[in-house]
Amino acid sequence: MMEVVKPWRHVFKLDPERELGEDALEAVCMSGTDAIMIGGSSGVTYDNTVDLMSRVRRYELPCVLEVSDLEAVVPGFDLYMIPMVLNTTDSAWTTGRHREAIERYGYLIPWEALIPEGYIVLNPDSTVARLTGADTDLSLAAAEACAHVGSKLMNLPVIYVEYSGTFGDLQLVERVRRASGQARVFYGGGIRDRETAAQAASVSDTIVVGNIIYENLTKALETVEAVHNK
Ligand code: 1GP
Predict the structure, then answer these.
(1) Which of 81, 132, 191 should be mutated for ligand 1, with most atoms under 8 A from CB?
(2) Which of 60, 176, 177, 190 is the most core-located residue (most Cβ within 10 A)?
(3) Does residue 40 have its Cβ closer than 6 Å to ligand 1?
(4) Exposure of 59 by Cβ count < 10 A (0-12 exposed, 13-18 middle, 19+ buried)?
């Protein structure tokens, strides 16, 4: 399954809790982005996930669920990305909730469609940082060590540098990328236009664009051009 993910340079992340009209959804799905990821840190339910998946399914690009809530795991996605937070001491967010999920639903899990992601959560004001108790105050060396833990000790295929809601420190992202070996480095957070997209893309393998879709669709669509028609 990593073969599907490897060529991705650009992903739009849609939040099932937020409204997106039909025309906007079509523009997003036809933009040339490499995949649609569905996920959010709060308010994700089975119903709003099914609803959004069935709307995205009308288009030909890969549709991926980033699993954050066990109650909202819906069958029928191409891939399931499973976050494991690398910079928290609360083991619930590294393996705890995962173990519970497997105990309860292991027999239903399509293992071949799962991709684990080592999350490094860096915006202290984000919901995901609060929720997971992430230690966001990382030096460059500490971030690099997190990347080593994820890529070399845990052999995770994706390291996700998550600045959700704010544009990150690209020097740090670059260090993480160098430390991540064969793992693909995803960057997400605060990409709002062509320039920020190009900058983030220069230090990562895949950029993830979320919020701006709901705030300024034109600018969101330009982020695809920044990586695909340079
Ligand atoms: C969120 O990384 C993504 O998980 C994208 O962040 O919403 O800030 O674009 P933004």
Answers:
(1) 191
(2) 176
(3) no
(4) middle
pLDDT, one tens digit per residue, over 92-102 is: 999 999 999 99
Report whether 60 contacts 35 (CB < 8 A). no
| Structural domain count of the chain | 1
- 168 in contact with ligand 1, CB cutoff 6 A: no
Is the whole-model pTM more than 0.70? yes
225 Cβ partners below 8 Å, 6+ apart? 32, 194
pLDDT in tens, 15-31: 999 999 999 999 999 99
pLDDT digits (tens, 9 = 90+) for 87-128: 999 999 999 999 999 988 888 889 999 999 999 999 999 999
Asked if residues 35 and 11 have their Cβ atoms less than 8 Å apart, the reply is yes
Instruction: Check which CATH number belongs to the domain holding 135 and give it.
Output: 3.20.20.390
Q: Which atom of ligand 1 is nearest to the CA of 188?
A: 2
Residue minimizing CA distance to atom 1 of ligand 1: 164
Separation of alpha carbons 181 and 152, rounded Å = 8
Expressed as residue numbers, the domain containing 177 is 2-228
Q: Tell me if 190 CB under 6 Å of ligand 1.
A: yes
List binding-site positions for Mg(2+): 15, 41
Q: Annotated binding site for sn-glycerol 1-phosphate: which residue ranges?
A: 13, 160-165, 190, 210-211
